[in-house]
Every structure is written in structure tokens, then in C-alpha cells.
Design goal:
The chain is of the alpha+beta class. It is built from two helices and five strands; from the N terminus they run αββββαβ. β2 and β3 form a beta hairpin. The C terminus is likely disordered.
């Protein structure tokens, strides 16, 4: 009985340690990306035209099972204040649909797809122009589209 308790305690300790290491890694990445955003915002304070479109990112992907080759895309284009647009093109065999969604202050009042959110975060972080969906980006604790 005592050995079982000791083994369970040791396993619990190892699990806790591994969770702490994962959390520390994620926090470090988020802090680094927040610092990147702050540095970019400081550029605005030093005389950069706030309304000039300067941040962009494009995410290419396969939106439909019938198509391959990453023909669909989401493109975020923003100014220094985080205002701009996210444009998405969903390409299928017989039709293409294009969507444009307004962005204000780095957020959209409309619901964004995961690909649109990824393009928006990448543009805000200055990670464009081409970003892959599996590139890790901070979520800053809240959905971008809401």
C-alpha cells in the first residue's frame, strides 16, 4: 500500500512538472509575441503614418475536400492602428467565393474563420507576408473575431 502511494505521488509530481514546463514555454512565447506587438506600436509613436497600410499576412489552405494545392487563401491587410480588412477566397471546382471582413483595432466585428484569425494575428505580429497554418502564433487569451 505504501509503495503504491509513493509511486502515485511520484507520477503525479512528474505530471505536474511536465505541465509546468509546457505552461512556461507557452507563456514565454506569448510574452515574446506581445513584446513584438508593443515594439511595432512604438514605431507608430515615432512618426510612422498611422493610416498607411503596413502589416499584411496571407494564409493559403485547402478549404474544400474536393480541391488540393492550397488554392484558397485569407489575406489580412492592416494599418498601424490595426484597422483594415481580411479578404478570403474559397476556391472550389465549379465556383469561387470571396469574402471581405472589416478589422478595427485588430479585431473584427464579424466572425472570422480559423484561417482568417491566423492571418490577422500574423499581420498584427508582423509575421507576413506568407504564413503557414501550423506556424505558432499567440492567441492573446481571447478570440480575434469576437
Amino acid at each position: 500500500m505504501l509503495i503504491t502511494v509513493a509511486v502515485v505521488g511520484a507520477l503525479s509530481g512528474l505530471a505536474g512538472l511536465s505541465m509546468a514546463l509546457v505552461a512556461r514555454s507557452r507563456v514565454s512565447r506569448v510574452v515574446e509575441e506581445c513584446a513584438d506587438v508593443l515594439r511595432r506600436q512604438m514605431q507608430v509613436a515615432t512618426g510612422v503614418d498611422k493610416k498607411a497600410l503596413r502589416d499584411l499576412a496571407i494564409v493559403r489552405y485547402d478549404a474544400l475536400a474536393e480541391m488540393s494545392g492550397e488554392l484558397s487563401f485569407s489575406l489580412a491587410v492592416l494599418d498601424a492602428a490595426g484597422d483594415g480588412v481580411v479578404i478570403s477566397s474559397i476556391n472550389g471546382r465549379s465556383e469561387t467565393r470571396t469574402y471581405a471582413k472589416v478589422v478595427q483595432g485588430g479585431r473584427s466585428p464579424q466572425m472570422l474563420s480559423p484561417e482568417e484569425e491566423h492571418a490577422l494575428r500574423a499581420a498584427r505580429l508582423g509575421r507576413g507576408p506568407v504564413v503557414e497554418m501550423d506556424d505558432p502564433l499567440a492567441d492573446f487569451g481571447a478570440p480575434v473575431g469576437g
